[in-house]
Amino acid sequence: xxxxxxxxxxxxxxxxxxxxxxxxxxxxxxxxxxxxxxxxxxxxxxxxxxxxxxxxxxxxxxxxxxxxxxxxxxxxxxxxxxxxxxxxxxxxxxxxxxxxxxxxxxxxxxxxxxxxxxxxxxxxxxxxxxxxxxxxxxxxxxxxxxxxxxxxxxx
Length: 155
Description:
Elements: H1 11-25, H2 28-48, E1 50-51, E2 54-55, H3 61-70, H4 81-85, E3 87-90, E4 95-98, H5 104-109, E5 111-113, E6 119-121, H6 137-154
Antiparallel strand pairs: 1-2, 3-4, 5-6
Helix pairs in contact: 2-6
């Protein structure tokens, strides 16, 4: 003999479950929130000339003098092109953050540049990833908070 119990959910619960299902299918608002969080980190890095509080490698004296002549004071911020270029695209299941500035990678990761690669550029990370291309724990924690808020709001 089989035994079956059917439970009918009231309208409010059914509505909330439908809202949650709809929101989980389209994560664009969550991805957008995460994108804004990461942009805030980038802006803070440029403002403080550091990566999450770790100061960027200082400029060489000759570079400081050249920048001073042109009226530029901050590292990586002559005209603001690099800082202003960082943006994101959020979709229902993905977030892409980056820049289209061709010299961004050399500043993010460091390396040899210039004619015959004679100039060594030290890494001055401005994007919210560490040297292993991972999100630092502090940023992961902020993203987890955003996800938790999104789910609570969806319920």
